[in-house]
Amino acid sequence: MRTPFLFLLSSLLLTLLSIYPSQGSDDHKCDFPDHDSTLPVMHIYSPCSPFRPPKALSWEQTVLDMAARDEARLQYLSSLVAGRSVVPIASGRQLLQTPTYIVRTKIGTPAQTLLMAMDTSSDVAWIPCTGCVGCSPNVFSTGKSTTYKAVGCQAPQCKQVPNPSCIGTLRKACSFNLTYGSSTIAGTVAQDTFKLATDLVPNYSFGCLSSVTGSSAPPQGLLGLGRGPMSLLSQTHNLYQSTFSYCLPSFKSLNFSGSLRLGPVAQPIRIKTTPLLRNPRRSSLYYVNLIGISVGRRLVHIPPSVFAFNATSGAGTIIDSGTVFTRLVTPAYTAVRDAFRRRIKGATVSSLGGFDTCYTVPVRAPTITFHFTGLNMSLPADNVLIHSTAGSITCLAMAAAPDNVNSVLNVIANMQQQNHRVLIDVPNSRLGIARELCTK
Ligand SMILES: *[C@@H]1O[C@H](CO)[C@@H](O)[C@H](O)[C@H]1NC(C)=O
Ligand SMILES: *[C@@H]1O[C@H](CO)[C@@H](O)[C@H](O)[C@H]1NC(C)=O
Ligand SMILES: *[C@@H]1O[C@H](CO)[C@@H](O)[C@H](O)[C@H]1NC(C)=O
Ligand SMILES: *[C@@H]1O[C@H](CO)[C@@H](O)[C@H](O)[C@H]1NC(C)=O
Ligand SMILES: *[C@@H]1O[C@H](CO)[C@@H](O)[C@H](O)[C@H]1NC(C)=O
């Protein structure tokens, strides 16, 4: 069932890997100073991104590629179960994702800059290291860092990785590997100083990759913002108290204009919040309670059972930074889509790939509001519609959850979060959302 899709995905990744240019754009506009505990965030396709495709893909191709990658991500999200999501190294499925937003981190002493994928639904920190066979050219040079150290076999972190084994004779290093289909990823568990904006995090544990075969590993490191035991949140608990917020710029944004703000300082105070729910079986995911959806001012008739949180089945709603287009379980999506179509009178509906509500004439989208317990998130047209650059086609940027996957999970995705500040406050079990224009 998954094979054609994986093939498509692998080809896409191969393309990304083969075009990966040397990092560090000459363009000074892409140099952004760090300040306080705030990291600049950019879209993978933005002009400052070294991961963007060299030639502009056609708009349709870009959208279809992003939608195709979403399918893999939804499979990954549904595969998360307790025990697997706490390892610091990606499980096979996680490696199949390509990221959509990246942040700049500095690692080692003296600091080396790396762009890492930001992912709120995983706990992983992994980095391509010196001599990595099959990784992108931009690796972390372990030998140039005076604070780098391998994590020994006896360390507790070594019990968290898949297939751990001990290498070396004197001070045995903890190595690991994992395979997925025809891809194998191997590395060692290591520690070094992370510099996040202006904050130093000494002895941060991560997976230091030494070889990648096959075509399914994305070229950059991954910075998981989930809340498992080895996650960034856990490793920096004293510094950031499991609190962060982010604002994702539109993917049309020309530079690093979004932000990832770590820690409780400088977070919005009067932001409306909704309770953050915890699912022990899917411990890294940020579940919230979606209770209704309005199109225009009208509440769409959707039975509440469609949204109900169930820790056993995984049903409910998550806020995810890595999925591009919001997915709603079929009965909810169908009802929202029908209400939306009724508001666009007289225009013929067409489709594009997985999007079933597209128009070839200009349309005015009604606001779509997600009602969460205690919080309404109202989406203006920019978060509701995707337009082709030529303006010839416009689609409702949401879809039904794929039936072959976990059809019980609603995913509020990054296209809908763009230009909003999303606050994750784990100690107070709350998630805030407020409109904020962070696209320049
Ligand atoms: C971001 O890009 C915009 C448009 O190219 C430019 O006007 C702005 O100065 C850039 N921001 C920074 C901080 O360089
Ligand atoms: C992966 O690790 C296991 C256990 O240490 C080892 O037996 C196996 O040969 C390794 N596989 C690869 C492909 O490196
Ligand atoms: C980091 O590790 C080094 C050596 O293992 C140790 O001396 C140092 O105290 C550690 N630093 C912190 C802040 O834990
Ligand atoms: C939650 O899901 C499980 C497994 O699908 C099901 O057996 C149970 O009845 C559900 N609980 C509720 C309250 O619906
Ligand atoms: C959310 O919107 C609904 C319907 O418009 C309204 O009744 C409710 O008071 C709003 N809730 C908040 C917290 O603003």
TrEMBL record:
Gene3D superfamilies reported in the protein's UniProt record: Acid Proteases
Q: Where is the Peptidase A1 domain?
A: 101-434
* Keywords associated with the record: Aspartyl protease, Disulfide bond, Glycoprotein, Hydrolase, Protease, Signal
GO molecular-function term, one example from the UniProt record: aspartic-type endopeptidase activity
Which SUPFAM superfamilies does this chain map to?
Acid proteases (SSF50630)
The Swiss-Prot or TrEMBL record describes its family as follows:
Belongs to the peptidase A1 family.
**Protein name (Swiss-Prot/TrEMBL):** Aspartyl protease AED3-like
Supply the source organism for this entry.
Nelumbo nucifera
Q: Which gene encodes it?
A: LOC104611341
